[in-house]
Amino acid sequence: MDLSGKLLIAMPGMGDPRFERALIFLCAHSEEGAMGLMVNKPLPDLSFDDLLEQLSIEPAESARRDIRVHLGGPVEHGRGFVLHSGDYEAPDSTLRVDDRFAMTATLDILEDIAHGGGPAQSLFALGYAGWGPEQLESEFRANGWLSCEASPELVFGTDDGDKWERALETLGVSPLGLSGSAGRA
Question: Among 50-54, 141-145, 150-154, which stretch is predicted with the lowest mean pLDDT?
């Protein structure tokens, strides 16, 4: 099962408060493990302009965009990732997930965005969520996650506070009908 390019929807009662109502875009998933970015947990005290200033990148006045900075996950909080539309690629540093999504983790993309270039859609994340071999599959069996198709509208365009519920809606599931307990047949 390869869930690369899908969204993980945290189930109630999964037991890890860091992922309460989390929506995670899976950038990579293989037998070696998985890596993803939370796309609905904005960091309220850090703006993209603040980040550029910390990195000594001077944005062009005409290039200013409203790019939200998110908590990508509990691993390596000091490391930044840009999840973006598939219309941008930095040589040797972009992980192409599919035709619609890619992820780049170098300063090049930040400089391109600051100067008016870069991808049409993007989301900046500090840190990431990671799983070892078979760990994510085990969490699925324990009723920790649901998965759904990712759309650019949901990942980039939806209000962060509504993303978790909107992802559930794509499955025809109401948040009120979810249980934190796994069933057995």
Answer: 50-54
